[in-house]
Amino acid sequence: MKAILVIFNKALTEQIFYILEKLSVKGYTYWETVHGKGEVGEPRMGTHTWPEENSALFMAVTPDMGEQLVNAFRFLDETKPHVGLKVFTWHVEKPF
Asked: Residues 54, 10: contact at Cβ < 8 Å?
């Protein structure tokens, strides 16, 4: 199994869920609002000074589905490079 964590600017929410629907992803965990700062870009803290916010999505999928998702998220990031999208993957044992 492949675990995928996606951190994305809320402005990408519709596109992110479109990808999940098109690839028939059945299970995931979604955090509507997360705050933080990456290595580049402005912080997203939901405050007056840093008003933008991120969301997060976590899923465990087959390796093939993981590859499809990563490719779709990569394409989205390349079409909107300054909006904010990070994808992290790692191998996980099959859940019980």
From this structure: yes
